[in-house]
Amino acid sequence: MKSVVLKYDGSFPGFLTCVFNAYEQKLEIAEIIPEGEDQKQLFSETLEVITEDFKVQRVLKSLKKKLSSNGFTRLYYSFLSEIPGIELKMYDMIRYVYSSQEKAELDYSHPSVLDISKAAKQVGREKHRMEAFIRFRLTKDDLYFAVIEPDFNVLPVITKHFKSRYADQRWLIYDLKRKLGIHYDLQKAEYVSMELPEDIGISGGNPDYFAEGEIYFQHLWKEYFDSTNIKSRVNMRLHIQHVPKRYWKYLSEKSPFA
Amino acid sequence: MDFDRIKEKLNILADAAKYDVSCSSSGSKRTNTKKGLGDSSGMGICHSYTQDGRCVSLLKILLTNHCIFDCAYCVTRKSNDIKRAAFKVQEVVDLTISFYRRNYIEGLFLSSGIFKSPDHTMERLIRVAKKLREEENFNGYIHLKSIPGASDELMREAGLYADRLSVNIEIPTKSGLKLLAPEKKHEDFMKPMEKVKNEIIQYKSESKLIKSTPKYAPAGQSTQMIVGATGESDRDIMYSSAFFYKNYNMKRVYYSGYVPISNDPRLPALGTQVPMMRENRLYQTDWLMRFYGYDVRELLNNDFQHLEMDIDPKLSYALRNRHLFPVDINKVDKQLLLRVPGIGLKSVNKILQARKFRKLNWEHLQKIGISMNRAKYFITCDAREKELKDVSSENLKQLIMQNSFSKYRKEFTQQLSLF
Ligand code: SF4
Fold this sequence. Notes:
The complex is a heterodimer.
Chain A: E1 3-8, H1 12-24, E2 28-34, E3 45-48, H2 53-66, H3 69-80, H4 86-99, H5 111-133, E4 137-138, E5 144-148, H6 155-165, E6 171-175, E7 180-184, E8 189-192, H7 214-227, H8 236-242
Parallel strand pairs in A: 1-2, 1-3, 5-6
Antiparallel strand pairs in A: 4-5, 6-7, 7-8
Helix pairs in contact in A: 1-2, 3-5, 4-5, 5-6
Chain B: H1 3-15, E1 48-49, E2 55-56, E3 58-62, H2 89-101, E4 107-111, H3 118-134, E5 141-145, H4 152-161, E6 164-166, H5 174-180, H6 186-209, E7 221-227, H7 234-247, E8 252-257, H8 276-291, H9 296-299, H10 313-320, E9 327-328, H11 334-337, H12 345-354, H13 362-368, H14 372-375, E10 379-380, H15 393-402, H16 406-416
Parallel strand pairs in B: 3-4, 4-5, 5-6, 6-7, 7-8, 9-10
Antiparallel strand pairs in B: 1-2
Helix pairs in contact in B: 2-3, 3-4, 4-6, 7-8
């Protein structure tokens, strides 16, 4: 049997469709890659996969039967990692789970199970960090606005958190890297995509866009942060381990403005 | 808002509050109902970290740093020549809400110097919390510091608005307290703790019968001890801790390495280094008690009164109890598995799961992520044994330390230069 490369639309349902097709057509899979990415396998045939809802539902249903809800979440999180080649590992784990009787998702001595769990852990960690490090700025039209650039695609998994926490304020979290945001309008949260002005900044920013006092609150927060420090206990290595430098630019307390 | 005035107060009153090390904002069950603001039903979130590596999750401030008392270890003490300030109740409310809406914090930690009387002070703290809950519909986290000597009625009321209450015991031994805070009585700390404990128990049993019973301090109570101010032993400290966990259902005990803040002959001199490594070892010991099933007497006792600074308490225990090891990773029960140095809680669970599928060997264990450098001397698995039975504990310790990460060693030598 010849192995094939599956090309899909890059979405999670798209990936699930790949799983369906692979099983239905008994394919030997060499790679599963999102559109726009180059395949590594030179001599494999490429199949385009069209996302189809009934296939998605079928795979979802069977996955949820075979996996615990934690196991399913791990699989989904690992997908959001966008690590090149993660799809094939996910597929490999799915096959392993389908072919075994017991709760194989917990078999950490199986390479794919372990890799998936590691990727999921990384994504989980960044999800948690984003829930911590997002800094809203209040705009003139009463919108709490934040920009992020996470390593992984965590927007889909942080929405619930912010929705239940900030139920009584309008907010928008925008992922600059993926050019996609989530907007909550006091009723529902929806994906939006938009052009942002250059000078909106990550902290500070052009005061014209923001409510009166907004910049001042950022200063207050920075002041507060500075006065919590106990000089005789400074430990920068630990500090950077907790707040990796790549996140500093979002954090008003770390921003050089003032 | 008068920003400049607020800024000045914030500087003074956050600065004075920073020595309180409790920061946790987890363990509550306050969910956002009726589309209000905030939610503290999940795990606590650390929104930032100070340069000394402590988590910032709450707006931690004093209502005022005026104080009628003169405890030697405290910056706010009466005799200290510092700028004084006081927040208005509404100012604290506004600041909390504005910071919370911007996702800077999980909530408020409010403490205070004692002005006029304990009751007068406590009553003000409660007013802040009440306003936040009732006027702002705020469901974020509120931690109130109980004022030693405050009345039972006020303690009762505080728990209706706060998620957590704490009374800082500050000094782990009675004799130490007498020396450094002669105006304070040991009972002033114990009484509010007792009250809070009883209220929590009562509200819990009522809420089983009547659904609408309000929550009382759902995240429980905590306390803090200053370490290294009065020459107490690690054993003294941890026995006090064990006592609080057991008798007052404490959720957390915090250990705060004493930061010299005054030239007082009763205290370590200014410029003395903060005993950070010791503090760290105490937290590790606390952790072993709460999550690894150790009894405090196994970790510290009359023959062993001080924790070892150069190795962690778990390794120290294992080296003192070589007769329990090595254990067979594929057979040993969970309780002993938890005692193997280099194997953490998560790895224990992974091992228990994975060994249902196959016998684990060194490679599996490595992949699971256990710290082989330490663990290998205390386990056997599905592979050839490492022959180390005859090595003495002292030599084994040297061997392990030599192979430890250099960063760990460096930190330790830094610390060593203290002695
Ligand atoms: S009563 Fe509290 S605030 Fe006042 S000096 Fe003593 S420890 Fe400090």
